[in-house]
Design a protein that fits this description.
47% helix; 9 helices; Glutaredoxin; alpha+beta; 11 strands; single chain; 19% strand; 275 residues; two-stranded antiparallel sheet
Length: 275
Amino acid sequence: MTRVINTIWLALALCAWSGASPALADTAPAFDTNAALSQSQAAIGRKLGDHRFVSSDGKPVRLAEYAGKPFIISLIYSSCYHTCPQITQSLARAVEVANDALGAQKFDVITIGFDTDYDKPSAMRSFARTQGIDFENWRFLSADAPTIWRLSDDTGFQFAPSPRGFDHLTQTTIIDRKGRVYAHVYGDDFPTPQLVEPLKHLVLNDGPWNSLQTFVDRVRFICTSYDPARDAYYFDYSLFIGMTIGFVCLLALSIFIYREFFRQRRAPSVQKSVR
């Protein structure tokens, strides 16, 4: 119960600063935190459209490019001086841990600027540089206002211009390999497992059983544990050894039952031949 209450309070944390987009200010409704949280939760399970963006290096990007593996969406506005940088730094810590535990090639991260009058590719590039983000699986994107509104509807991310800048949920969204909203992480300074645990499930335990790699991933999923002292994940060999011993014991028992079954079936035949 305490965890649920803390999550809700984190969800209601707001970010604001000067520099709101006039175009958005003309159309956005007043911000209602309770309604925003409700909309956010209602988006879980919703499939994202194939929206189009521009990367910080000026290249066109479509969400369809991310199909086939999980990815993370973080919506921020780059002129925010406190909360959005804090969200980005918290996300960076979790991504570093996830890259080490799961592999940077297994998932992607997207930061999208929703202040469409200001968050052009150059501003997003500057924001990434200022935040020290240099991960191979992390991109910073821009879009026009209609695209941002559609993406906001898809992900349940609510924001509204205010006299101080923008009010919005501190929401980080995890998307599954089929492009559906899988989970939200709330807060501007969230614990690492809140992001990595659902991501770990999607990366290691959500694919089809069609290869040896899938089996290896399932074993890694079961045997990968979090160490809060180091804020890192590690492969727990004791669990792997226990699983191996259990498998060997089960195999030995199966062989014993198999041999006993056929020995008893042969016994009557031997007795008849003796008679």
